[in-house]
Specification:
GO terms for molecular function: ATP binding; double-stranded DNA binding; helicase activity; hydrolase activity; telomeric DNA binding. Its main location: nucleus. Residues 232-423 form the Ku domain. Pfam families: Ku. Helices cover 26% and strands 26% of the residues. By secondary structure, it is of the alpha/beta class. It has three domains: 7-216, Rossmann fold (3-Layer(aba) Sandwich), CATH 3.40.50; 230-250 and 305-402, Beta Barrel (Ku70, Chain: A, Domain 2); 269-302, no CATH class. It has an eight-stranded mixed beta sheet with strand order 14-13-20-22-23-24-21-15, with helices on one face. Strand 16 (269-270) and strand 17 form a beta hairpin. Helix 1 (19-35) packs across helix 9 (451-465). It is globular, with a radius of gyration of 29 Å.
Length: 469
Amino acid sequence: MPPAAKRDVGVVFFDLYSKENLLGSLLKFVGWETVNTKDEHRLFLVNSQETSNAKNLPNVELVPQTLQQLGVKGVQNCVQQAEQTEEDMFDLYALDLHNVLSLGVYHLREFLDVPGVITKQLILFSNLANFSPMEEELFEKLVKKIRDYDISLYIVGPQVRFLEPVYATEYFFIEKYAENIVLEKPTAGLEQAKKLVVEVSGVIADATAGLHLLLTCRQTAGSQPWKVPLTIGSNIEIPVRTSKVYRRDVHISVKKEKITDGPPVEEEFTLASDVSVKVDVQETVRGLSIHNKFVEVRNDNEIFQMATEPTFDVICFTYEDNVPVPYMIGEEGFVVLPNETSSASQRQFFNALVDCLSEQHKYAIVSRVYIRNTQPKFFVLIPDADQVPKRFMMVEVCTGDGVRHPVQFRRPDKPKAEVDKEMRDFLKDMDATNPEGTKKVALEPTMMMAWRDEKVLDLILEEECGVGD
């Protein structure tokens, strides 16, 4: 059976009171999702006069079709034709943020054990003007559910300003995001929403930046974290998440077409001593001739199967000179960080291990079984104590027959660098994360969708809805 198709699933809540400012962002998101036909996103209209949802929350209407089925024009019609609650009854219809987000968690829970799901997205398009804050006990329960179910939370619409450009150091890890958020018009509901996204590593931003972060802060196929704990000996186990940060893609190549003339050739079995004597295939026995003895090899594959479970074990520690670059054969790079479930003591131990190996110029050699019943592969963990948070970089190393010749490794002498001050200042000024630079932007380029993709989305909106930027 082939592996399950990789896809994202999500629940989208759209606040009808924010229709004027956020409908364009919603339609762009829908335009993006209609291209990814394997994804599945359900749409709820908030502050609607209709009530239809699994929890019977008042003024929350479930649209029967998914975003992918509706398309851009269908979503536009649903939002524009929906009857919202009266503006003068604003306070009466104040919605509880906990109830709305819990409804989304309830629907995403069904995808917990579904194979192929990469990112479970909980998305709220709203300026949160009429959302009341939740009680502290309910807040803690909601945070725990979002963490336990590995749900990604996005709140798009509130007026949020970033003190520094938002950038990421690896997939789905936004650097210093929490202390970077400034609410332009803080309210009790907005303050709690900010606290919530900080607790669950979510995203909160205005319509423009929020759309970019919604499309970039997600795990792509093959980059979702591998959450098997790192074990050292029989007593130490550290919850970690291993994420792929580099992959060498296979280039396009020309494949020679196989040309066959005439009907296929039928195989015939004969005696080795007399080729004129034919043997029925049912009477043959598979085997090997070793030292003039025949060794039977059974027709099944049981002898080649392995009974293993996913493991991530440290085999030894060695000086970095013993693992030169030519031994690092892997075409993929990984980063190993403490998992969200790590306790304070486990994080402290992980950081101490990184510091200790870095100070002693040592690496860790690990054995990794990625999925059950497969052979282990061996990797080197390279400590990186200069980054925040501290981490290991990981790459596969060759073993056994892969090591053909010992490598005499000698550290290269550092060349004398001639500093070009003008060029150095120019490059520093081009760095969006440089606090001394003159180029001030809200998002670092890697946190934004490609300008070609954005142009295509504008063309889709203009073609189907008659609107565009």
